[in-house]
From TrEMBL:
One of its GO terms (biological process) is polyamine transport. This is ABC transporter substrate-binding protein. PANTHER family: ABC TRANSPORTER SUBSTRATE-BINDING PROTEIN, THIAMINE-BINDING PERIPLASMIC PROTEIN-RELATED. Coiled coil: none annotated. CDD domains: PBP2_polyamine_RpCGA009.
Length: 346
């Protein structure tokens, strides 16, 4: 009789456990919502998200869009984002508006394995840069006969009517404003000189682009001969025009820092920090570099010359990039945008 009761009890217990598994009781996976750009989706799904989901028993949900769209969703509270990937220009806005959690760096030990410039580009309380690119110049040598070596070359007669520049509201907009100040002969940023210099070239601009896809399409159709572009997109330009060249200007290229932060009010803060740590790992950084998805910031990533082609790689390159003060940029953004609309884009 004792054996029968034990058997009945075991069956009942097993039934309850199976019922719990069937309706997700106590076994439901956590959900981690990531806001990002949406490019190279197959790579991220297979190489970044899937291994993390398996290790942490979590479902990753991705929301995509450009910087401005996704930051606005967080501002409006219309999404339940845990982690947000943004360029430093937009991330600084989020910090100023109190939209991000302060991070616990003890939960992100891989921060110690990345370039110093990437560890805290917007302050120790906020997320690191997971990739560092450079803004330089791409051009079509079939249309521009003289070799391009300097930002000032964009002001040459060859580029007149063949040029594109980023809009002031684009990530690269303030960088080009700073470059114009340099072309005008200033070592420190001079707003008046920068706008005066841009006034000289504005009539030769085919379009002030807001999205990289616009640049690539114009380049492919030979509507433009070139202009400032982030190196990470050069592969798309070269696919359309194999002879295209990318140049690091003699005055210096600009660092493009893409950051990752935890959104204010996230219920998965520690899990989000674990994901950031995974994003900075040598494994992910190497895979993304070899796939030419992102330039690595982890100093332990080792690439061959062929693997490094077309990405920003190595301390000797990264340490030479010019860094803008994003707090200064955002404090002046409204004034610069208004002035741009009146003096440059009209």
């Amino acid at each position: 009789m004792k054996k029968v009761l034990t058997g009945i009890t075991s069956v009942a217990l097993a039934s309850m456990l199976l019922a719990g598994c069937g309706d997700g009781g106590g076994a439901a996976k956590e959900k981690l919502v990531i806001s990002t750009w949406g490019f190279s989706e197959e790579f991220f799904n297979e190489q970044v998200y899937a291994p993390f989901e398996e290790e942490h028993n979590v479902d990753i949900v991705v929301e995509v869009g450009n910087n401005a769209e996704r930051l606005n969703k967080i501002r409006q509270g219309t999404s339940q984002v845990d982690i947000v990937f943004l360029s430093d220009y937009y991330a600084q806005q989020g910090i100023a508006e109190g939209l991000f959690e302060t991070i616990d760096r003890a939960n992100i030990p891989n921060i110690e394995q990345i370039y110093d410039s990437a560890k805290a580009p917007l302050g120790e309380d906020y997320g690191p840069a997971y990739t560092v690119g450079q803004l330089g110049i791409a051009y079509n040598p079939n249309l521009i006969k003289n070799e391009v070596t300097s930002w000032s070359d964009l002001w040459s007669d060859e580029f007149a009517g063949n040029l594109t520049l980023p809009n002031i509201t684009a990530t690269a907009g303030p960088m080009v404003l700073d470059a114009a100040s340099t072309v005008a002969g200033n070592t420190a940023f001079n707003e008046d000189a920068a706008f005066a210099e841009l006034t000289k070239v504005k009539d030769g601009v085919v379009k002030f682009y807001s999205q990289t896809s616009e640049y690539v399409n114009m380049f492919a159709q030979e509507e433009i001969a070139g202009g400032p572009i982030m190196e990470m997109y050069f592969k798309d330009i070269q696919a359309a025009v194999p002879e295209a060249k990318f140049v690091t200007p003699s005055e210096g290229a600009y660092a493009v820092m893409n950051t990752v932060n935890v959104v204010k009010g996230s219920k998965n803060k520690e899990l989000a920090e674990e994901f950031i740590n995974w994003q900075l790992s040598e494994e992910v950084q190497t895979a993304s570099a070899k796939a030419k998805v992102d330039s690595p910031v982890n100093v332990n990533v080792k690439l061959t010359e062929e693997e490094a082609e077309g990405i920003t790689y190595g301390a000797d390159v990264v340490d030479q990039l010019k860094l803008l003060d994003m707090e200064f940029v955002n404090n002046n953004a409204a004034v610069w945008t208004d002035r741009w609309n009146r003096e440059i884009a009209n």
